[in-house]
Amino acid sequence: MKSVGYKYPGGHQAVSDLSLKLGPGILGLLGPNGAGKSTLMRILATLARPTAGQVTWNGVDIAEQPNALRVALGYLPQDFGVYSALSAREFLAFLAAVKGLSGVEAKTRVETCLAQVGLSDAADRRLGDFSGGMRQRVGIAQALLNDPTLLIVDEPTVGLDPEERMRFRHLLTDLAGQRLVILSTHIVSDVEASATQLAVMAEGRLRFHGTPEQLLGMAEGHVWEWTLAADQLAEVRANYTLCASLRRPDGVRVRVISAGRPHADAQAVTPGLEDAYTWLLGASAAAH
Ligand SMILES: Nc1ncnc2c1ncn2[C@@H]1O[C@H](COP(=O)(O)OP(=O)(O)OP(=O)(O)O)[C@@H](O)[C@H]1O
Questions:
Q1: Percent helix, strand, coil in the chain (nearest 5)?
Q2: Ligand 1 in reach of 42 Cβ (< 6 A)
Q3: Which of 72, 94, 137, 250 has the most Cβ atoms closer than 10 angstroms to its Cβ?
Q4: Does the keyword DNA damage apply (predicted)?
Protein backbone atom coordinates (compact mmCIF):
# COMPACT_ATOMS: atom_id res chain seq x y z
CA MET A 1 0.00 0.00 0.00
CA LYS A 2 1.63 3.23 -1.13
CA SER A 3 0.55 6.76 -0.11
CA VAL A 4 -3.07 5.64 0.10
CA GLY A 5 -5.68 8.30 0.72
CA TYR A 6 -9.46 8.26 0.86
CA LYS A 7 -11.75 11.26 0.75
CA TYR A 8 -15.50 10.70 1.17
CA PRO A 9 -17.73 12.40 -1.42
CA GLY A 10 -18.75 14.94 1.26
CA GLY A 11 -15.09 15.98 1.48
CA HIS A 12 -14.03 14.22 4.69
CA GLN A 13 -10.47 12.90 4.43
CA ALA A 14 -10.78 9.55 6.25
CA VAL A 15 -7.36 8.11 5.26
CA SER A 16 -4.25 10.14 4.44
CA ASP A 17 -0.91 9.21 2.88
CA LEU A 18 -0.81 5.71 4.30
CA SER A 19 1.97 3.33 3.28
CA LEU A 20 2.30 -0.23 4.58
CA LYS A 21 3.92 -3.44 3.43
CA LEU A 22 2.43 -6.63 4.86
CA GLY A 23 3.24 -10.35 4.94
CA PRO A 24 1.80 -13.49 6.61
CA GLY A 25 0.82 -13.25 10.28
CA ILE A 26 -1.74 -11.34 12.29
CA LEU A 27 -1.75 -7.58 11.89
CA GLY A 28 -3.59 -5.82 14.69
CA LEU A 29 -4.94 -2.54 13.32
CA LEU A 30 -5.60 -0.33 16.30
CA GLY A 31 -7.09 3.13 16.48
CA PRO A 32 -9.77 5.09 18.27
CA ASN A 33 -13.29 5.34 16.84
CA GLY A 34 -13.24 7.39 13.65
CA ALA A 35 -9.51 6.79 13.01
CA GLY A 36 -10.23 5.46 9.53
CA LYS A 37 -9.81 1.74 10.17
CA SER A 38 -13.07 0.64 8.54
CA THR A 39 -12.42 2.84 5.54
CA LEU A 40 -8.99 1.27 5.13
CA MET A 41 -10.47 -2.23 5.52
CA ARG A 42 -13.02 -1.50 2.81
CA ILE A 43 -10.23 -0.30 0.50
CA LEU A 44 -8.28 -3.51 1.15
CA ALA A 45 -11.42 -5.56 0.57
CA THR A 46 -11.82 -3.79 -2.82
CA LEU A 47 -15.16 -2.28 -1.75
CA ALA A 48 -13.82 1.27 -1.92
CA ARG A 49 -11.34 2.67 -4.39
CA PRO A 50 -8.61 4.83 -2.87
CA THR A 51 -8.85 8.44 -3.99
CA ALA A 52 -5.05 8.69 -3.80
CA GLY A 53 -2.16 6.23 -3.90
CA GLN A 54 -2.13 2.58 -4.77
CA VAL A 55 -2.73 -0.82 -3.18
CA THR A 56 -1.01 -3.79 -4.77
CA TRP A 57 -1.49 -7.49 -4.13
CA ASN A 58 1.38 -9.65 -5.41
CA GLY A 59 2.37 -6.73 -7.62
CA VAL A 60 -1.11 -6.19 -9.12
CA ASP A 61 -2.95 -2.89 -8.57
CA ILE A 62 -6.25 -3.92 -6.92
CA ALA A 63 -8.10 -0.86 -8.19
CA GLU A 64 -7.28 -1.96 -11.76
CA GLN A 65 -7.79 -5.69 -11.22
CA PRO A 66 -9.86 -6.25 -8.06
CA ASN A 67 -10.46 -9.92 -8.90
CA ALA A 68 -6.76 -10.68 -8.43
CA LEU A 69 -7.32 -10.01 -4.74
CA ARG A 70 -10.98 -11.05 -4.41
CA VAL A 71 -10.23 -14.70 -5.16
CA ALA A 72 -7.81 -14.72 -2.22
CA LEU A 73 -9.93 -12.60 0.12
CA GLY A 74 -12.11 -13.41 3.11
CA TYR A 75 -13.87 -10.44 4.70
CA LEU A 76 -15.94 -10.05 7.83
CA PRO A 77 -17.36 -6.53 7.75
CA GLN A 78 -18.20 -4.55 10.87
CA ASP A 79 -21.91 -4.63 10.09
CA PHE A 80 -22.14 -8.31 9.15
CA GLY A 81 -25.76 -9.48 9.30
CA VAL A 82 -27.20 -12.98 9.18
CA TYR A 83 -30.60 -14.31 8.14
CA SER A 84 -32.20 -15.31 11.45
CA ALA A 85 -34.54 -17.88 9.94
CA LEU A 86 -31.76 -19.93 8.33
CA SER A 87 -29.58 -22.47 10.07
CA ALA A 88 -25.81 -21.93 10.06
CA ARG A 89 -25.42 -24.73 7.50
CA GLU A 90 -28.13 -23.29 5.21
CA PHE A 91 -26.72 -19.79 5.46
CA LEU A 92 -23.20 -20.94 4.57
CA ALA A 93 -24.50 -23.08 1.71
CA PHE A 94 -26.31 -20.02 0.37
CA LEU A 95 -23.16 -17.88 0.59
CA ALA A 96 -21.04 -20.65 -0.96
CA ALA A 97 -23.38 -20.59 -3.97
CA VAL A 98 -23.16 -16.79 -4.13
CA LYS A 99 -19.38 -17.12 -4.12
CA GLY A 100 -19.53 -19.47 -7.06
CA LEU A 101 -18.86 -22.75 -5.27
CA SER A 102 -21.11 -25.61 -6.21
CA GLY A 103 -21.85 -29.28 -5.72
CA VAL A 104 -19.52 -31.41 -3.69
CA GLU A 105 -16.94 -28.65 -3.36
CA ALA A 106 -19.48 -26.29 -1.77
CA LYS A 107 -20.70 -29.00 0.61
CA THR A 108 -17.17 -29.90 1.67
CA ARG A 109 -16.14 -26.28 2.22
CA VAL A 110 -19.24 -25.56 4.32
CA GLU A 111 -18.52 -28.54 6.58
CA THR A 112 -14.80 -27.71 6.83
CA CYS A 113 -15.51 -24.08 7.74
CA LEU A 114 -18.18 -25.03 10.30
CA ALA A 115 -15.62 -27.33 11.92
CA GLN A 116 -12.88 -24.65 11.81
CA VAL A 117 -15.00 -22.24 13.83
CA GLY A 118 -16.30 -24.94 16.21
CA LEU A 119 -19.93 -24.84 15.04
CA SER A 120 -20.42 -28.33 13.57
CA ASP A 121 -22.69 -29.38 16.43
CA ALA A 122 -24.83 -26.24 16.21
CA ALA A 123 -24.97 -26.17 12.40
CA ASP A 124 -28.68 -26.98 12.13
CA ARG A 125 -29.86 -24.47 14.70
CA ARG A 126 -31.51 -21.22 13.60
CA LEU A 127 -29.08 -18.28 13.48
CA GLY A 128 -31.71 -16.23 15.30
CA ASP A 129 -31.05 -18.38 18.38
CA PHE A 130 -27.26 -17.95 18.23
CA SER A 131 -25.32 -15.84 20.75
CA GLY A 132 -23.32 -12.82 19.48
CA GLY A 133 -20.11 -14.83 19.65
CA MET A 134 -21.60 -17.71 17.67
CA ARG A 135 -22.86 -15.29 15.04
CA GLN A 136 -19.39 -13.79 14.70
CA ARG A 137 -18.02 -17.30 14.25
CA VAL A 138 -20.51 -17.80 11.42
CA GLY A 139 -19.12 -14.54 10.02
CA ILE A 140 -15.63 -16.00 10.10
CA ALA A 141 -16.85 -19.26 8.58
CA GLN A 142 -18.32 -17.42 5.58
CA ALA A 143 -15.07 -15.47 5.20
CA LEU A 144 -13.17 -18.79 5.10
CA LEU A 145 -15.33 -20.45 2.42
CA ASN A 146 -12.82 -19.76 -0.37
CA ASP A 147 -9.84 -20.67 1.87
CA PRO A 148 -8.49 -17.11 1.64
CA THR A 149 -4.85 -16.07 1.97
CA LEU A 150 -5.98 -12.63 3.16
CA LEU A 151 -8.55 -12.56 5.94
CA ILE A 152 -9.88 -9.13 6.94
CA VAL A 153 -11.90 -8.88 10.13
CA ASP A 154 -13.33 -5.49 11.12
CA GLU A 155 -14.08 -4.87 14.83
CA PRO A 156 -15.19 -8.48 15.38
CA THR A 157 -15.41 -8.42 19.17
CA VAL A 158 -17.87 -5.54 19.57
CA GLY A 159 -20.79 -6.70 21.71
CA LEU A 160 -19.19 -9.99 22.76
CA ASP A 161 -18.90 -10.97 26.41
CA PRO A 162 -15.39 -11.57 27.86
CA GLU A 163 -15.52 -15.34 27.36
CA GLU A 164 -16.70 -15.07 23.77
CA ARG A 165 -14.03 -12.46 23.13
CA MET A 166 -11.32 -14.80 24.34
CA ARG A 167 -12.66 -17.69 22.29
CA PHE A 168 -12.78 -15.48 19.21
CA ARG A 169 -9.17 -14.36 19.71
CA HIS A 170 -8.00 -17.95 19.99
CA LEU A 171 -9.87 -18.82 16.82
CA LEU A 172 -8.11 -16.08 14.85
CA THR A 173 -4.72 -17.19 16.18
CA ASP A 174 -5.47 -20.77 15.05
CA LEU A 175 -6.50 -19.54 11.61
CA ALA A 176 -3.45 -17.38 10.95
CA GLY A 177 -0.97 -20.01 9.71
CA GLN A 178 0.35 -18.91 6.34
CA ARG A 179 -2.43 -16.36 5.94
CA LEU A 180 -2.33 -12.64 6.46
CA VAL A 181 -5.06 -11.82 8.99
CA ILE A 182 -5.90 -8.15 9.48
CA LEU A 183 -7.88 -7.55 12.62
CA SER A 184 -9.15 -4.07 13.26
CA THR A 185 -10.18 -3.04 16.74
CA HIS A 186 -10.08 -0.19 19.23
CA ILE A 187 -9.51 -2.62 22.08
CA VAL A 188 -5.85 -3.37 22.80
CA SER A 189 -6.52 -6.67 24.57
CA ASP A 190 -8.07 -8.04 21.34
CA VAL A 191 -4.64 -8.06 19.70
CA GLU A 192 -2.35 -8.20 22.71
CA ALA A 193 -1.63 -11.92 22.68
CA SER A 194 -2.07 -12.69 19.01
CA ALA A 195 -0.74 -9.90 16.78
CA THR A 196 2.68 -10.40 15.23
CA GLN A 197 2.54 -6.85 13.86
CA LEU A 198 0.68 -3.75 14.97
CA ALA A 199 -0.44 -0.75 12.98
CA VAL A 200 -1.89 2.20 14.83
CA MET A 201 -4.06 4.76 13.06
CA ALA A 202 -5.35 8.09 14.33
CA GLU A 203 -7.15 10.76 12.33
CA GLY A 204 -6.65 8.83 9.10
CA ARG A 205 -2.89 8.58 9.47
CA LEU A 206 -0.56 5.73 10.31
CA ARG A 207 1.09 6.55 13.65
CA PHE A 208 2.98 3.30 14.14
CA HIS A 209 3.81 0.09 12.34
CA GLY A 210 6.00 -2.55 13.93
CA THR A 211 6.01 -5.36 16.44
CA PRO A 212 4.28 -5.11 19.82
CA GLU A 213 7.77 -5.28 21.39
CA GLN A 214 8.86 -2.20 19.43
CA LEU A 215 5.83 -0.26 20.62
CA LEU A 216 6.47 -1.35 24.21
CA GLY A 217 10.11 -0.25 23.87
CA MET A 218 9.07 3.21 22.65
CA ALA A 219 6.91 3.77 25.73
CA GLU A 220 9.67 2.66 28.12
CA GLY A 221 10.38 5.39 30.70
CA HIS A 222 7.04 7.14 30.13
CA VAL A 223 4.84 5.12 32.48
CA TRP A 224 4.89 5.89 36.20
CA GLU A 225 3.26 4.67 39.38
CA TRP A 226 2.97 6.07 42.88
CA THR A 227 0.53 6.22 45.74
CA LEU A 228 -1.16 9.49 46.60
CA ALA A 229 -3.81 10.76 49.00
CA ALA A 230 -7.34 10.38 47.63
CA ASP A 231 -7.91 14.16 47.52
CA GLN A 232 -4.94 14.61 45.12
CA LEU A 233 -6.44 12.35 42.49
CA ALA A 234 -8.40 15.10 40.71
CA GLU A 235 -5.24 17.17 40.25
CA VAL A 236 -3.30 14.25 38.78
CA ARG A 237 -6.21 13.47 36.48
CA ALA A 238 -6.27 17.07 35.30
CA ASN A 239 -2.54 17.19 34.54
CA TYR A 240 -1.65 13.73 33.27
CA THR A 241 -3.04 10.87 31.24
CA LEU A 242 -4.23 8.49 33.91
CA CYS A 243 -4.03 4.84 32.78
CA ALA A 244 -5.28 3.28 35.98
CA SER A 245 -6.08 4.04 39.59
CA LEU A 246 -6.56 1.58 42.40
CA ARG A 247 -7.90 2.41 45.84
CA ARG A 248 -5.80 0.92 48.64
CA PRO A 249 -5.77 1.28 52.44
CA ASP A 250 -2.86 3.79 52.23
CA GLY A 251 -4.32 5.96 49.43
CA VAL A 252 -4.75 5.63 45.69
CA ARG A 253 -2.19 3.87 43.53
CA VAL A 254 -2.05 5.69 40.18
CA ARG A 255 -0.46 4.77 36.87
CA VAL A 256 0.15 7.72 34.56
CA ILE A 257 1.81 8.54 31.26
CA SER A 258 4.37 11.31 31.51
CA ALA A 259 7.51 12.25 29.58
CA GLY A 260 9.28 13.16 32.85
CA ARG A 261 8.94 12.05 36.49
CA PRO A 262 5.51 13.39 37.49
CA HIS A 263 6.05 13.25 41.26
CA ALA A 264 8.95 12.76 43.68
CA ASP A 265 7.51 9.39 44.75
CA ALA A 266 6.81 8.20 41.19
CA GLN A 267 8.63 5.09 39.95
CA ALA A 268 9.01 4.26 36.26
CA VAL A 269 7.29 0.94 35.57
CA THR A 270 7.41 -1.49 32.65
CA PRO A 271 4.74 -0.46 30.14
CA GLY A 272 1.99 -2.85 29.09
CA LEU A 273 0.62 -2.68 25.55
CA GLU A 274 -2.41 -0.67 26.68
CA ASP A 275 -0.05 1.89 28.29
CA ALA A 276 2.13 2.00 25.18
CA TYR A 277 -0.88 2.53 22.91
CA THR A 278 -2.19 5.32 25.15
CA TRP A 279 1.28 6.89 25.20
CA LEU A 280 1.54 6.69 21.39
CA LEU A 281 -1.85 8.32 20.81
CA GLY A 282 -0.93 11.12 23.22
CA ALA A 283 2.53 11.60 21.73
CA SER A 284 1.28 11.56 18.14
CA ALA A 285 -1.58 13.98 18.94
CA ALA A 286 0.97 16.36 20.49
CA ALA A 287 3.15 16.13 17.37
CA HIS A 288 0.29 16.95 14.95
N1 LIG B 1 -19.95 7.42 4.34
C2 LIG B 1 -19.23 8.37 4.95
N3 LIG B 1 -19.30 9.67 4.55
C4 LIG B 1 -18.56 10.62 5.15
N5 LIG B 1 -17.70 10.40 6.17
C6 LIG B 1 -17.59 9.13 6.62
C7 LIG B 1 -18.34 8.05 6.05
N8 LIG B 1 -18.01 6.92 6.70
C9 LIG B 1 -17.10 7.26 7.63
N10 LIG B 1 -16.85 8.58 7.59
C11 LIG B 1 -15.92 9.34 8.44
O12 LIG B 1 -14.60 8.91 8.15
C13 LIG B 1 -13.84 8.81 9.35
C14 LIG B 1 -13.27 7.43 9.48
O15 LIG B 1 -14.33 6.51 9.66
P16 LIG B 1 -14.08 4.94 9.83
O17 LIG B 1 -15.40 4.28 9.99
O18 LIG B 1 -13.18 4.48 8.74
O19 LIG B 1 -13.27 4.92 11.21
P20 LIG B 1 -12.99 3.71 12.20
O21 LIG B 1 -11.60 3.88 12.67
O22 LIG B 1 -13.34 2.44 11.54
O23 LIG B 1 -13.97 4.01 13.36
P24 LIG B 1 -15.14 3.11 13.93
O25 LIG B 1 -14.47 2.09 14.76
O26 LIG B 1 -15.95 4.10 14.71
O27 LIG B 1 -15.86 2.56 12.73
C28 LIG B 1 -14.76 9.20 10.50
O29 LIG B 1 -14.53 10.55 10.83
C30 LIG B 1 -16.14 9.01 9.91
O31 LIG B 1 -17.05 9.92 10.50
A1: 40, 25, 35
A2: no
A3: 137
A4: no
